Amino acid sequence: MILAAAVVLGLVVGLARHKSHAFSRIASIPLRSAWLALLALALQLPLLRAPAGPTQVLRTQQALLLVSYLLLLLFVWRNRRLGAVLIVGAGVVCNLLVLLANQGFMPITPQTLVRINPASSVEQWSEGTHYGHSKDIILTREDTRVWPLSDVLAIPPPFPWPAAFSAGDLILAAGIVLLIAAPELTFERRIRDEA
Amino acid sequence: MKKLQVLWIRLSTPRNQKVLYLLLTLAALAIASGAPGAGGGTGGGGGLGLP
Question: Of A83, A85, A185, B45, which is the most buried if we count CB atoms within 10 A?
Fold first, then answer.
């Protein structure tokens, strides 16, 4: 949910910059095929609702996750004229690379899990199992492919919503903040293309 | 309840509805593209029942 905060941040920055015109600017964003993003999230719900356990029983959810990323790429392609969406696309590609390289899940190390769950210990997290209610699989750093792009970043307590996230998450969050807070900047490509 | 209805009628202009739809779409995009749920603490714990 930490990524949804990017929407709130973008809105706050947009309101600070444009005040009463912020909503009009947001409404003018020519986003195409928005339903693709909503459908992609719907396809991921079965995996996001699955509790912790072996990954072998999550084949269907895993396949749906990969299909959802194809929809997200299609969404990015349909909106490629918006510069900020291209930044979002870069984040999506980063995350997809890691998923494809690691059995279709986002790897997270036991050490990172202890950082966001200080009441736990490294031994408590079984390698190779699904981290419940997420897209993550628990893997050691040695067993993680493309480790730098996996969920290596963390906001630990006392932050009220401790969470782990990837570099791809940061990139796409930046794209979303930019799209909401400065929609006029994201139109530059379109204007240039049409000129 | 009636006040809420009046507020809804006043605020639910086509523009505001579009803004709401766009923001919900972008929230869905953020959640679907990233790694939601990789959280801990209250309500987290990856299903291990941690505090």
Answer: A85
